Amino acid sequence: MPSFDDVWTDKMYTGIEHIDEHHKRLVHLLIDAFNLVEAGGSAERVREIVAELVSYTKYHFAAEERLMLEIKYPRLAEQRMAHQWFVKELNEHFLTLSSADGTLPAQIFVFLRDWYADHILKHDSDIGTFMRAEEERKGPRKSGS
Ligand SMILES: [Fe+2]
Ligand SMILES: [Fe+2]
Fold first, then answer.
1. 81-109, pLDDT tens digit by residue?
2. Which of 46, 47, 66, 77 has its CB surrounded by the most CB atoms within 10 Å?
3. What is the pLDDT of residues 4-21, one digit of tens each?
4. d(CA 32, CA 38)
């Protein structure tokens, strides 16, 4: 699996600071999970990292959806559906891992990472574009008035 710098590109920045930090952390976690499975890490460690992925993903999606609601982002419903799909996917893998002697192929994390990178590029970056356009539309705030 390529390193973080091979996966992350400048185009993936939304321009929204906390969202960008979340995205980087998620990409890191997906790469770490892949590397751990590839290196034959213990089932216990794999379960831990996937559990972290599940909880951090939920935390991030909730924060992102809250922001979209606040700024009245028009494509919130579409984002919600995509987020739900990803969480369901992660949960299923976590269940597989938790069953008796469940293991996961490392490639699953490549698939999830690619999906996520694509989601950031095609969907999340648009939130930043929308925010900037809205600020532009409202015009500069007059000082002293
Ligand atoms: Fe999103
Ligand atoms: Fe996101």
1. 999 999 999 999 888 887 766 778 889 99
2. 46
3. 998 899 999 999 999 999
4. 10
* Domain 17-138: top CATH class: mainly alpha
Among positive and negative, which fits the CA dihedral 137, 65, 47, 114? negative
What is the Å distance from ligand 2's center to 116 Cα? 8
Which single residue is written with the structure tokens 């938790």? 98
- Distance between CA 54 and CA 112 in Å, rounded? 12
Residues 50/90, Cβ–Cβ less than 8 Å? yes
Which residues line ion ligand 2, judged by CB < 5 Å? 64, 124
pTM over 0.85: yes
Please tell me what DSSP assigns to residue 99: S
Domain boundaries, the chain: 17-138
